[in-house]
Amino acid sequence: MKSLDSLLSTLRLRSALQNRVVLGETWGVRFPARPHAGKFHFMEQGSGQLCVTECPATTMRQGDFAIVMTDREHTVQDLTGGRPTPLPELLRQSDILCASGITLRFGGAGAETSVVSGDFDFAESAHHPLIRLLPPCLILRGNGTSGAPGLDAVLKVLTSESMAAQPGATALLDRLCDVLFIQAIRGWVHTGDSNSGLPAAVQDTAIDGALHLIQSEPASEWTVESLAREVALSRSVFAERFRRLTGDTPMGYLARWRVHCATRLLQKDQLGMMEVASQVGYESEFAFAKAFKCITGIAPGAYRRSKGGIAAS
């Protein structure tokens, strides 16, 4: 699973714990769609159901953890299926239960459930290939089979810190959320569907090897043939398997990875546009600009200016 290391280490996200809510039945919360973002929910106590637009509703029980890519509206609600309350309204109506202000109380007088929720902001990695490989809803069950032994430990610290008002708690909680995301992806990879998607791709020796080559050497003159040869497959078998497991062609994935690398260079390095193009595998500024705009929707010079980099060369 060499490719997973570079996928995770190059992902720039901003994480934050939003709140811990004690919910009395009947209850329901509607979370709005938001581009380039994810929302996590940890069922600390009790049970409920997660309903994501265009996906089947799924029951969440104590110990379950979910990540929802929030370009889709979704709700977390009790099993009675009552009418959910929009998140902003819940925040206005809730009672604060702890010194930190993070633990809230909402809902009726029935059986109580507590849910810890937070945000993952991927705006700085909007074009990272990993984002395309994530499912709309990722759920890890809290029955000891999550595949991420460290996940429970992180969640335990997260919930205890959310109830305190210790110095530095906000910074600590945000960093823990970063770790939570990585642990969740690791767990998903170990327990996910072995027939398609990221879990299947990184567990397939040949496809994982090809991904690792692309991600470690983006400037190399890769072709479908050369990648297939490196992983000891025929061109046709390699191309079909790569697309089936990743949802992309080898050359499409290569272009996306090169553009992702370019976004980092455009933001941080004082390099001319041709230097950026060369470092990510393009022989001309024109070819680079065409590929960059095709994937991101804007020209590299405009991207650089929008991210506060130096003026386009």
Give an overview of the whole structure.
It is a single chain. 45% of the residues lie in helices and 21% in strands. It contains 13 helices and twelve strands. The strands form two sheets. Strands 9-10-1-11-3-6-12 form a seven-stranded mixed β-sheet, with helices on both faces. It has a five-stranded mixed β-sheet with strand order 5-4-7-2-8. A hairpin with a 5-residue loop joins β4 and β5.
Short structural description:
The protein has 313 residues and is α+β, with helices and mostly antiparallel strands. Helices cover 45% and strands 21% of the residues.
How do the helices and strands line up, and which of them pair or pack?
Elements: H1 2-9, E1 14-24, E2 28-31, E3 37-45, E4 47-52, E5 58-61, E6 65-69, E7 74-77, E8 85-86, H2 87-93, E9 95-96, E10 103-107, E11 112-121, H3 129-133, E12 137-140, H4 149-162, H5 169-191, H6 197-203, H7 205-216, H8 224-230, H9 235-246, H10 250-268, H11 273-279, H12 285-296, H13 300-306
Parallel strand pairs: 1-10, 2-8
Antiparallel strand pairs: 1-11, 2-7, 3-6, 3-11, 4-5, 4-7, 6-12, 9-10
What would you report as the Rg, rounded to the nearest angstrom? 22 Å
Output the CATH topology of the largest domain: Jelly Rolls
What percentage of residues falls in helices of 4 or more residues? Answer: 40-55%
Oligomer: single chain
Structural class, from secondary structure content?
A: alpha+beta
Number of separate domains? 2
The H/E string reads HEEEEEEEEHEEEHEHHHHHHHHHH
- What's the main sheet like? 7 strands, mixed
Number of helices: 13
**What fraction strand?**
15-25%
Overall 3D shape: elongated
Q: What is the total tally of β strands?
A: 12
The stretches of 5 or more residues where confidence is low (pLDDT under 50) are 309-313
The CATH H-level homologous superfamily of the largest domain: Regulatory protein AraC
- Provide the CATH architecture of the largest domain: Sandwich
The chain-level mean pLDDT equals 88
CATH class of the largest domain: Mainly Beta
* Strand line-up of the largest beta sheet: 9-10-1-11-3-6-12
Distance between the termini: 38 Å
